[in-house]
Amino acid sequence: NAGVTQTPKFQVLKTGQSMTLQCAQDMNHEYMSWYRQDPGMGLRLIHYSVGAGITDQGEVPNGYNVSRSTTEDFPLRLLSAAPSQTSVYFCASSYRDTHTGELFFGEGSRLTVL
Amino acid sequence: SQQGEEDPQALSIQEGENATMNCSYKTSINNLQWYRQNSGRGLVHLILIRSNEREKHSGRLRVTLDTSKKSSSLLITASRAADTASYFCATVRSGSARQLTFGSGTQLTVLP
User: Fold this and answer.
1) Which of A26, B31, B34, B89 is placed for a possible disulfide with B4 were both Cys, Cβ 3.0 to 4.6 Å?
2) Residues of B in contact with A42 (CB under 8 A)
3) How confident is the model at residue B1 (pLDDT cuts 50, 70, 90)?
């Protein structure tokens, strides 16, 4: 099993550009989520999904879109990149929700917006 | 807003010593989890303690939970250089099982 796979690992964007961060898991997990990690801030939840076709907002959803068409994939879209979105992004999944289990994390995608 | 806050922010110890990290949180929780993050890597789950548990062990890890004080501690015994990492507590709030809220972490350095 590969676990949680994120691509790309590194990306540089110009302000106003759009892009999609990809996340895939092969553990048949129902729950998937996106976090961003900024220095001194810990991780903050952007969006999450409890199953195909179901998504919801986390703590910092503005400027990001998500969809969940399959159990395996949960892409994160930046609609119009801003320097404030410079961060490290982590995708995580869990068998069910966080009530019962641990999160499995990808290795992260480091995004720089100029 | 962050639910958990770790203390200290940074900790440096010698190999073989014990390391204790603390986490405080603000609201009622369902469970509390501890994660480790090596530099440049993703987070790895260490241990989960439920709100009705007071202490839990896993190998060299010991976690305590005091819901009356809204605090938890992570003890790593006989530390090794490989334990050098950032450690985060994360809470699942009561009634909000779908969101795990992380603290800002403790950077642990174990000197050989």
Assistant:
1) B89
2) 2, 4, 88, 102-105
3) very low
